[in-house]
Design a protein that fits this description.
The structure holds two protein chains of two kinds. Chain A has 17 helices and seven strands. By secondary structure, chain A is an alpha+beta fold. Chain A is elongated and about 125 Å long. Chain A has a five-stranded mixed β-sheet with strand order 2-4-5-7-6. Chain A has a two-stranded antiparallel sheet with strand order 1-3. In chain A, α6 packs antiparallel against α11 and α15 packs antiparallel against α17. Chain B starts with 6 loop residues before the first strand and ends with a helix. In chain B, α6 crosses α8 and α7 packs across α8. In chain B, α3 links the parallel β3 and β4. The model of chain B has no long low-confidence stretch (mean pLDDT 85). By secondary structure, chain B is of the alpha/beta class. Classes of the chains: A alpha+beta, B alpha/beta. Chains A and B meet through α11 and α12 of A and α1, α4 and β5 of B.
Chain lengths: 548, 202
């Protein structure tokens, strides 16, 4: 989903043209190769074959790149029929069927893309839609295709029903098995690294698949026994273990192997007899794979969130402990330093003061101060991870953060406005922490826009304004988004309170903690733009002890 | 430094801190009076004793911030130096906003502490000197009669003796006598001194 919107933003002239040619060439090569390879056992006098993986390539292209690639699809279908058929129909009939098929599949792709982008099978719901729309589309394609051939006298009228059924199942099964595989986004390096851990299992799964194909083949060789079940076991196992990618890769390979085995063995059952079981296998694997993928990603997300939570909790506990410890130790340390310094003074004032005693007491005092310094640093670490307060141009920080979010703002069509004010004094804050705060607030606004549904009533705007409040500087971040839900308003700044689906609810609470430790503050108000408004208050002067 | 320079009123609930700081400060020549809590300090406070307050922020009972408020309410203008074991900038800022003289984090560096306390005592002394001078002038002005005050107002406004005489319906000579009286009562030796005394009093 993302890459399509991104490609709309990229400068088209520079990046898109050469890549488009590359995609077109790769598509044509793969299409023709598969068309040629799968041209086996056609119905007499037609190009209707029991298995059409080439249509899987068509669907993958249209789903990934959009319906505007339909002309190339028509050209490829036309070329495929000319090149692979023995005695193809006349060219005007071919032109008609090619165009018809391209239009039908482009419509299917357009419908699927509107629903869920180019990764249609990541969830069981998505897989359901995918299977349903593909079933309908390939049915319509088959009916029209056969009708054209019949009216052109290429197919006998009494064969119409059988031709439609065979063509339909062949197309359906080809798309179901191959399209998800081609749309996979795999990171080969990560996959290679994962390999050794699963080597034994992968080996056994592959062996299972081979045994399955062999058994089916052996049973098929007995001609009367049309059993297909041995293949379900390994494919189910693979689908449950490896999700959609494993399921669909194994289904494609099993189908290819089966077709090859049956084709190469004279006297085995006709391929049309295994057409339906092959489709059933593909659909089963697709749904099982989608279920497994969904389960895995949910598990992973839970684990990741849990890890983040655990880390921050540990940090919070350590912080509490450090705070309690330093507090308890501070009092005796203060007393200790004073006592040692006093002893040093008294020793120095003795008429015949012992040099060694005075020196030792001085050293003892210095060591006590050093210990005190360690305590202070420990506390600073847990207070703000080493806050470095310095004179900072707050507007420059805001501009820098906004720059880094430029792409996102453009993608969400947000109009961003930063009101400069030359007279604004520098503020005394830690610029890194201020950056984190501003980044938090801006991404909150952007996230809020992204969750908005339905037609947009008003333009999306984010505005940063400044004001003075006595010796403090105020920075307001306004947006025209949906505002803050009443259910979270009161507890907005408490940790783990969030309105986002994937939020930890720590951003605002952390931001406020940062600012308060630096003598500033953070709060929210209703915005005059209609959405949320957050105000950051920052001091322009330091408290007298600058090492805080 | 000696007792006339003022006393550090040390308020801390921790006996170790109280004892050690009292010892150290008195060795450094700063007279110190310890209190275990803010309430006992307020109860025994005598406004005429010069000094400054050195107080912990977090204490059972009245906290450092509450002590500040209480002093403010009683219009006691003693400088307050705040100590905290927490180093919470927000609290420190609040203390400074409420008019704290300075703010130190525990454990304290003894040199820094002494510096801050000497500054605070100096500020208190200066404030007292200024207050005494003002009190003296006020007392002197109180000794002027109604007519003398009238004439002083005219003089301050820049009128000549003759104008004043005409306005008040008295002789220039009488004005002259009044003026000499005023100079004497206010302990002024020139017209310039008289003018500045008048300005100070108003």
């Amino acid at each position: 989903m993302n890459s399509t919107t991104e490609s709309g933003i990229r400068p088209l002239a520079r990046v898109f043209v050469p890549r488009a040619w590359l995609i077109a060439a790769g598509y044509l090569a793969l299409y023709l190769l598969l068309d040629w390879a799968s041209y086996v056992e056609p119905l007499p006098h037609t190009s209707i074959t029991p298995w059409n993986p080439n249509t899987g390539v068509v669907m993958a292209l249209l789903l990934a790149r959009g319906a505007r690639w339909a002309p190339l699809v028509a050209v490829s279908i036309f070329a495929g029929e000319i090149l692979t058929d023995d005695g193809p129909p006349p060219w005007h009939v071919l032109a008609l069927t090619s165009t018809y098929l391209a239009v039908v599949y482009a419509c299917a792709a357009w419908t699927l893309r509107r629903r869920g982008g180019e990764q249609p099978v990541a969830t069981p719901g998505g897989a359901g839609w995918f299977a349903g729309i593909i079933a309908a589309a390939s049915g319509i394609a088959a009916a029209g295709y056969v009708a054209i051939l019949v009216s052109a006298g290429q197919v006998a009228a009494e064969e119409t029903r059988a031709a439609i059924a065979h063509y339909w199942i062949g197309e359906f099964s080809g798309i179901i098995a191959l399209t998800p595989v081609l749309l996979l986004r795999v990171n080969p390096a990560a996959l290679w690294k994962e390999m050794p851990r699963h080597r034994r299992e992968l080996f056994m799964q592959a062996a299972g698949a081979v045994v399955g194909v062999g058994l089916t083949f052996a049973l098929a060789a007995a001609r009367d026994v049309r059993l297909f079940y041995p293949l379900f076991a390994p494919v189910t196992w693979i689908a449950l273990r490896h999700g959609v990618p494993g399921a669909m890769i194994s289904v494609s390979l099993v189908q290819a192997a089966l077709v090859a085995a049956l084709e190469l063995t004279p006297g085995s059952i006709p391929l049309f007899d295994v057409q339906f079981p092959m489709l059933a296998l593909g659909v089963t694997a697709l749904f099982l794979g989608a279920l497994a993928t969904q389960r895995d990603s949910a598990l992973r997300q839970m684990r990741d969130q849990d890890a983040v939570l655990q880390r921050s909790l540990r940090f919070a506990v350590a912080g509490q402990l450090a705070s309690a410890l330093t507090h308890e130790l501070n009092q005796p340390m203060t007393a200790l330093i004073s006592y040692v310094r006093a002893s040093q003074l008294m020793s120095e004032r003795q008429p015949n003061s012992d040099e060694r005693l005075t020196g030792t007491l001085r050293k003892a005092g210095d060591e006590a101060l050093r210990a005190a310094d360690v305590l202070r640093r420990l506390r600073e670490f847990y207070r703000g991870e080493g806050t470095r307060i310095a004179a900072t141009d707050a507007l420059a920080v805001c501009a820098r953060v906004a720059d880094s979010l430029q792409d996102r703002m453009r993608r969400s069509t947000v109009e961003f406005n930063l009101q400069y004010s030359a007279a604004l004094p520098q503020v005394m804050v830690d610029s890194t922490q201020l950056e984190i705060v501003v980044h938090n607030l801006l991404t909150n606004s952007l996230d809020a826009f992204d969750t908005q549904r339905g037609p947009r009533s008003s333009p999306r705007r984010i505005e940063i304004t400044t004001a003075r409040d006595g010796v403090d500087v105020l920075i307001g971040i306004d947006d025209s988004g949906p505002g803050i839900a009443a259910s979270v308003t009161e507890r907005l700044f408490e940790p783990f309170v969030t309105s986002k689906n994937s939020g930890m609810g720590l951003g605002l609470s952390l931001s406020r903690t940062f600012l308060r430790h630096q003598g500033g503050d953070l709060w929210n108000e209703p915005s005059r733009l209609g959405g949320a408004r957050f105000v950051i208050r920052m001091p322009t002067q330091l408290t007298t002890q600058t090492n805080l | 430094m000696n007792d006339h320079d003022g006393t550090v009123f040390l308020i801390d609930d921790d006996p170790g801190v109280r004892d050690s700081l009292t010892l150290l400060l008195s060795l450094k020549g700063v007279s110190t009076q310890p209190f275990a809590n803010a309430e006992s300090f307020i109860a025994s406070y005598q406004p005429e004793r010069p000094g400054c307050v050195l107080t912990d922020l977090r204490m059972p009972g009245m906290t450092g911030l509450e002590l500040q408020a209480a002093l403010h309410e009683r219009q006691i203008e003693v400088p307050v130096v705040v100590l905290t074991a927490h180093g919470d900038v927000a609290t420190a800022r609040a203390a400074l906003k409420n008019g704290a003289f300075d703010f130190l984090e525990k454990p304290i560096d003894d040199a820094m502490l002494l510096d801050v306390l000497r500054n605070a005592l100096r500020v208190d002394r200066e404030r007292r000197t200024a207050a005494t001078a003002r009190a003296t002038t006020d007392r002197r002005f109180e000794r002027l009669t109604h007519r003398e005050r009238e004439i002083l107002a005219f003089i301050a406004a820049g009128h000549q003796n003759r104008d004043i005489a005409a306005k008040l319906g008295i002789s220039a000579r009488t004005v002259e006598v009044h003026k000499a009286r005023i100079m004497e009562k206010l302990d002024c030796h020139s017209l310039a001194e008289l003018m500045s005394a008048h300005r100070a009093a108003n």
